[in-house]
Amino acid sequence: MDSSKNQQNNNNNKSSKVTSTTSLGKRRSLNKRARNRAKGHQRREDPANSTMSSPKASEYGSQASPLRQPATPNEITKVTILGAAGGIGQPLALLLMLHSEYVQHLALYDLVHVRGIAADLSHVDRQCKVTAHLGPDELTEAVRDAKVIVIPAGLAQKPGMSRDDLFGSNAKIMYNLAKVCAQVNPSAHLAIISNPVNSLVPLTCEVYQRILGAGSRKEKSADSNSALSQPAAPPASPGAAAPAGSSAQKSAGKQQQQQQCFHDCCRRIFGVTTLDVVRASTLSAKSAFFKPEPNGLFKDPAKIAIPVVGGHAGKTIIPLLSQSTMKVDKKRLIEEKATTLTLIESIQQAGIEVLNAKKGAGSATLAMAYSACRFTISLLRAQQGEPNIIECAYVRHQQPLVSDLEYFAAPLVLSKDGYVKTQGFSLNKLLPYEQQMIEEGAKELRMSVAKGEDFAKEQLSSEKL
Ligand SMILES: NC(=O)C1=CN([C@@H]2O[C@H](COP(=O)(O)OP(=O)(O)OC[C@H]3O[C@@H](n4cnc5c(N)ncnc54)[C@H](O)[C@@H]3O)[C@@H](O)[C@H]2O)C=CC1
Ligand SMILES: O=C([O-])CC(=O)C(=O)O
């Protein structure tokens, strides 16, 4: 391992529990940039390479940008956005395109407008192919071979609505999308943005379980492109190996194998809660808990990583201020309870604040697109084998972290096969009021989970799947 990689790993180990996107492209490609710079330098000194008519690369503003990196020569990484024409989908597509060192094919799927958006985006000077996929007939092609599928499809809140009020319309949308994703490309990582996240992730896991759990039945009729005939991933645990012996042993082994297969699918299904993490950093940086800089500006939020656990709605959004990477005086968090609670509430209510300020013209889209881009790039970096990539997300856990709750947002270590484990979350390390918030949030989460699972089970049964 070269020294800059070592340095990078050291930094990762020491620093934030949650990654920061500002340094994404920069860190990964320091060496490549140095090499490119060296090549550029050689070229300038070589008179054979200088022509009067063609301007130097550095004369173009965008080419001088440190974000601009060439695509990797051997492989194309495809990312698909389902709901790409919406308030989140459009800026997200643009941000992902700016990360063409990670994304070389952007597939945009929606029921409307998507061809025009793709045409527009395809003129951005990045080495990234953009394809448009309009309507259900083009959904299979959109999701096929994608490494990450990001889903902001569905209705957004209007003032006065709760996220749960969106369930009626968005559950059906998510169900139909999840079925196709599970059938066509179950090994892709799924990043679910659509609300209510707390119910739509369990709904999706249920769909995956049924469709992939019934793999042997379905395989026969599946087309050759269906990943049902190409299992998502080899079983990750030794327990998944088929045991020899009696028929009881065999059936127990099969059950264990199915459970492992289910977990392996769910490890790739993420409810995106990055916006809560981003808001927690930013609103805390502006709060009384951190002194402003000498120039009067608030602290750099990128240096304050605060895990946000639970879920993505009201009281289930639980920022753990005591676990901030930038030291907070824990005594102050307890003694100045009113300031602490005001800060926590402002993080929980940040979505409503935006909703009301937009006066019916939509909910959070720009900060969400930024957050989804950060999360997607983290997934891709982990898929490429980069270690120590940690993000908070709402996922299903094989062993519940909190009482009997299988679904819970927590900081996760990401890998090429989905998340591997939680990182640094331990109930008994938390302040008493944080533990109490988790208990209260858990009650709401239980209901949201049941709602999503029940919906999926009913639909799947009615379709005899
Ligand atoms: N997880 C989070 O932190 C956040 C989640 N959200 C949620 O994200 C979702 C999207 O928000 P916006 O982009 O602002 O909404 P939007 O209404 O602007 O866009 C939604 C897009 O989804 C498309 N769509 C609807 N049905 C579809 C289907 N069956 N297949 C494909 N596309 C379909 C629409 O045509 C539209 O282009 C909402 O549910 C919102 O509540 C919003 C902000 C934060
Ligand atoms: O409230 C909404 O619909 C959007 C949302 O989830 C957020 O801004 O956190």
Automatic annotation (TrEMBL):
Kindly state which reaction or reactions the protein catalyses.
Answer: (S)-malate + NAD(+) = oxaloacetate + NADH + H(+)
Superkingdom of the source?
Eukaryota
* InterPro entries tied to this protein: Lactate/malate_DH_C (IPR022383), Lactate/malate_DH_N (IPR001236), Lactate_DH/Glyco_Ohase_4_C (IPR015955), NAD(P)-bd_dom_sf (IPR036291)
* GO biological-process terms attached to the record: tricarboxylic acid cycle
Enzyme superclass (EC): oxidoreductase
Where are the compositionally biased (Basic residues) regions? 25-42
- Residues of the region (Disordered) are 1-70, 219-253
E.C. designation(s): 1.1.1.37
Q: Where is the composition biased (Polar residues)?
A: 48-70
Q: Where is composition skewed (Low complexity) in this entry?
A: 1-23, 238-253
Q: Could you state one GO cellular component term attached to this entry?
A: mitochondrion
- The question of whether Ribosomal protein is a record keyword is answered with no
- Keywords carried by this UniProt record: NAD, Oxidoreductase, Tricarboxylic acid cycle
User: What GO molecular-function term can you cite, just one?
Assistant: L-malate dehydrogenase (NAD+) activity
SUPFAM superfamilies for this protein: LDH C-terminal domain-like (SSF56327), NAD(P)-binding Rossmann-fold domains (SSF51735)
Gene3D superfamilies named in the record: Lactate dehydrogenase/glycoside hydrolase, family 4, C-terminal, NAD(P)-binding Rossmann-like Domain
Residues of the Lactate/malate dehydrogenase C-terminal domain: 273-455
- Indicate the segments forming the Lactate/malate dehydrogenase N-terminal domain, all copies: 77-204
Tell me which family the UniProt entry assigns to this protein.
Belongs to the LDH/MDH superfamily. MDH type 1 family.
Complexes and interactors: Homodimer.
Name the record gives this protein: malate dehydrogenase
Q: Which organism is it from?
A: Cryptomeria japonica (Japanese cedar)
- Read off the lineage from the record: Eukaryota, Viridiplantae, Streptophyta, Embryophyta, Tracheophyta
